[in-house]
Amino acid sequence: MDASTAYRERRERIETYFDRTAVDAWARMTSEAPLGRIRASVRAGRDLMRAALLHMLPGDLRNRRVLDAGCGTGALAIEAARRGADVVAVDLSEQLIALARTRAPADVGPGRLQFTVGDMLVADAGRFDHVVAMDSLIHYPLVEVVRMLGVLASLTNDSILFTFAPRTPALAAMHAIGRLFPRGNRAPAIEPIDENQLRRSIASARELRGWDCARSARIAHGFYTSQCMELLRA
Ligand SMILES: C[S@@+](CC[C@H](N)C(=O)[O-])C[C@H]1O[C@@H](n2cnc3c(N)ncnc32)[C@H](O)[C@@H]1O
Description:
- The protein has helices at residues 3-21, 23-29, 37-56, 75-82, 94-103, 142-153, 169-178, 195-204, and strands spanning 65-69, 86-91, 112-117, 128-133, 156-164, 211-221, 224-233.
- The chain is α/β, with parallel strands linked by helices.
- Helix 5 links the parallel strand 2 and strand 3.
């Protein structure tokens, strides 16, 4: 199977999951509705991650263009627009985008907010100052993540913020156990990534020449573990 067919197939599985299988669960996860203990810990971890990513963006986003790549129900995009950004928020899932549109306040203050259904790699919406991909690259393997970052870098002036699932012994064990269960309607697998290998791959990728890894933060909260990384144009 060639790389683009593998990418398309993976993307279709991700879309089916977020647009059909898990759309209600995801709507609930991203709302304020009560959740069980495990999911509540994931929601709290995700809130911390969103805050960490927003903290890595300039406080004043007026006159800045931001791409929320894989925006889901749009919480980060809404916050960036409130801080003045002109935000394009794109997601594969038509249903999540519809929900994001209903959740967006009519008045986002100084910014602008546009939700679009589609692939983040073909946003076709011009250039951006910052790109943020919160937990939207976690289902792609390392080579694919680096290729996707390369495409996003070609659209970006200043910084790319993304998260990955760090390969820790605990996550590797959970991952191994997960693979013992039949696939069925299970979520597309999360691809744990070794941080050092990620850094090396970014440093050696031709498409990412001129970009450096900068700040990074790992959020481990209950059942949520994810790590964000900032890429800056050198
Ligand atoms: C775990 S959710 C996170 C959503 C949102 N960023 C958040 O943190 O609430 C991952 C999202 O990434 C989207 N996604 C994955 N691959 C994508 C792609 N190639 N283009 C656009 N969206 C993508 C999925 O449809 C899904 O909504």
